[in-house]
Please model this.
Amino acid sequence: MSAVATAAGTAERRSWGPIWYGLLTGGMVVGLGCFVYQWINGLAVTGLSNTISWGMYIISFMFLVGISAGGLIVAAGAELVGSERFRSLTRLAVLLSGAAILAAAISIMPDLGRPQMVWRMLRQPHWTSPLIWDVLIITVYLSIAAIDLYILTRPNPRPGAMRTMAFIALPAAVLVHSITAWIFGLLVARPFWNTALLAPMFISSALVSGLGLLIVTAYVVDRTTEWEPERGVFQDLARLMVWFIAVDGFLLFAEILTTYASRVPDHLKQLNVLLTGRLAPVFWAEVIIGVVVPFVICASRLRERRGWVVAAGVLAMVGVFGKRINIVMTSMFMPLVGLEPGIPGGRAGQEFAPDPIYIPTWVEMGILLGLACFVGMLITLGVRYLVAPERTVRA
Amino acid sequence: MSDATKVSPIEALPEASREYGAVGEVSEEPRWGMAVDVERCIGCWSCAVICKSENDVPLGMWWNRILTKGEELDTPQTGEFGTLEMSWVPLACQHCDDPPCMKVCPTSATYVDAEHGHLVGVNQDDCIGCRYCMAACPYGVRVFNWGEPEYPVEGFDLGMVEPRPIGSVEKCTMCIHRLEEGQVPSCVWSCPAQARIFGDLNDPESRLVRTIEDRNGTQLLEEKGTKPKVYYLEERRRRSL
Model:
């Protein structure tokens, strides 16, 4: 990069930096404020009810666990396959994993009715609960990301260290998504979740969204700092994305075909909510935006243009978020004992709600904003100090 | 929370009422269960309402409710030969022997033990409010304390059960506080149609076990393998309006 460009880049960063940090901090303050407000007033300030008892917090938890996949898997994959191009992304990839999984762990807190009691999970863990195993594996996963980052940012990293870590990181990555899936998949009460395909589907969606995040952040970091990935790496990522989306789309199709063809009443009723019912717009948007379009971009010559690859990354993430909404909501809409008048709403003046709708409130959106800004802040600081620290030296 | 001048309504009951509500003889290790006679149920919601006052259940929440078969709450459905029919499914915690809610609870706040008559209990002190049990319950009988509890009138609580903290999950306890005094749950005691039979499933001679056998009592969502301790006795004849 020429001296002129560097100077221009510095000037640009100087002017935009404070605004960016200011926005992120503002968002985090809003989120924290909403969380405190909710803690004082109870979850009554959310749009949740006894029928739809899990909502945006659980959806974003699933999504955050998912996007944490890309990093460690790409990093570990680069080690195991020995891909030089991917190796240029390793630091950034691991940073993304760490940031996303930390945010996922935190995102559980606002979902709790009594966050002050969460320590009882450690004092008296009940090992038949998938939730306990998820806490355990998320801790392990976060530690792996932290150790990886430590190794990668040493001046002279030991050559074999990352390779050894890769052998631990890959099974841990598979487990973190599987166990998160089993939180839902092991419940007999929710036919739509209660499928053996749920864990494989979680892994495949996690890979798609995680890779999407990696593509998008790599692009942004490349544009805003002097950090530069190897040439052609976006095309390599797009090639990888083709496979991830193909597997994810295949599993979704296999699941839906099985349900549709075997016509088990409970299960079919829930599927119809997706195919033709109230969630149909989200479902078909998910299929087109999240599967078809990014697949076509990544599989065709469009991937030669970096802008298209980034667009595919964004769409893939949006699609997977839609999928998370669908997975949670479909089961919540349809209680097994569906007779009138249904499950009581839970608050004074609230009716029984056999066929309810769920609209997140501003408190929920505020907390989600705070979480998103928290992830953004972690990534920004990580990029500043760990991924592209040379930047500061030259500036 | 209950002040000293308050007398337990159970203690205040006249002798005849106490006799009417007595559990009677039980085995050494009772396994409490119930049968709901759908043929006798008239869908009056008495049991649902008395449950609310017995257990100080706040507004908007029900531990026990009456579901109507068919499409609408108050509209009869058309039966086999064009006759109008109405029937109900009174629904509360099924006190499963293999409860999915207990298995998923991360802190063992939901528990089942022999000292508790094998009933499914919730210790709200340990509840972190994750609502995993609500997702896991196939019957949808658990309710959550979303905000400050509200009651229809001041001093609504009878003070027989502990108030539940905001942010915790609660549900039917089978009136464990009444069982401790040898009295049947209040939904059983209060049913004007005597549609509920309470007893000890471990006692093969009990009226409960004999009736379930005679009437081929069924369990709700039996195929889910939760082994409920609440049985439903189906109608033996069609009831037309």
